[in-house]
TrEMBL record:
Species per Swiss-Prot/TrEMBL record: Thermocrispum agreste
Ranges for domain RCK C-terminal: 77-160
GO biological process: potassium ion transport
Gene3D superfamilies: Regulator of K+ conductance, C-terminal domain (3.30.70.1450)
Name of the protein described by the UniProt record: TrkA C-terminal domain-containing protein
A Pfam match: KhtT_N
Gene Ontology molecular function: monoatomic cation transmembrane transporter activity
């Protein structure tokens, strides 16, 4: 479903983008010239905003990633749901299996043609592009990209494995 985005310049301030939801509620985002974003909600038919949230650029980008499905993209019953970025799926997976693969390279082959392990979070520590010899522990979170089938294959390895 294509959603119309109305745009208008706000001289000296930035640019406004507005969408109308199925129930008539409108959502406007004003991207300020300084990078801040202001989100406004409008009740159906209302001229004045019923709510506003002001976000600095970093928070706005993080919220945008959440809304775009970078952190989690539910499929529900719709197996035809589009991947986050065309054919590319992205997901954070937590290692639960006691007999999980011992290293990053065992979890995702570094020479795999379509899957990559992009980051590993262990507690408050983040390891970007961990090497194939990096040891894995139960509780580690890994950011994996690839086709949806690649993600499911990796998910199977970290949730439960046959000994």
């Amino acid at each position: 479903m294509d959603v119309e985005v109305r745009r208008r310049d706000l001289p000296g301030l930035g640019r406004q983008f507005e969408i109308e939801c199925d129930d008539g509620t409108r959502l406007a985002v004003v991207v300020m010239n300084d990078g801040a974003r202001h989100l406004y909600t409008f009740a159906p038919g209302a001229e004045a905003a019923s709510g506003v949230i002001k976000l600095e650029e970093a928070h706005a980008r993080t919220l945008g990633a959440v809304l775009a499905g970078v952190y989690y993209e539910p499929i529900g019953d719709n197996e035809e749901a589009p991947a986050v970025l065309g054919a590319v799926a992205i997901d954070w997976l937590t290692i639960h299996a006691e007999n999980h693969p011992a290293t990053v390279g065992e979890l995702v082959d570094p020479d795999h043609p379509t899957a990559s392990l992009v980051a590993l979070m262990r507690g408050s520590r983040t390891i970007m592009k961990p090497g194939p010899d990096e040891k894995l522990q139960v509780g580690d979170q890994v950011l994996v990209t690839g086709h949806r089938a690649d993600i499911e294959e990796v998910r199977g390895k970290v949730i439960s494995r046959q000994a």
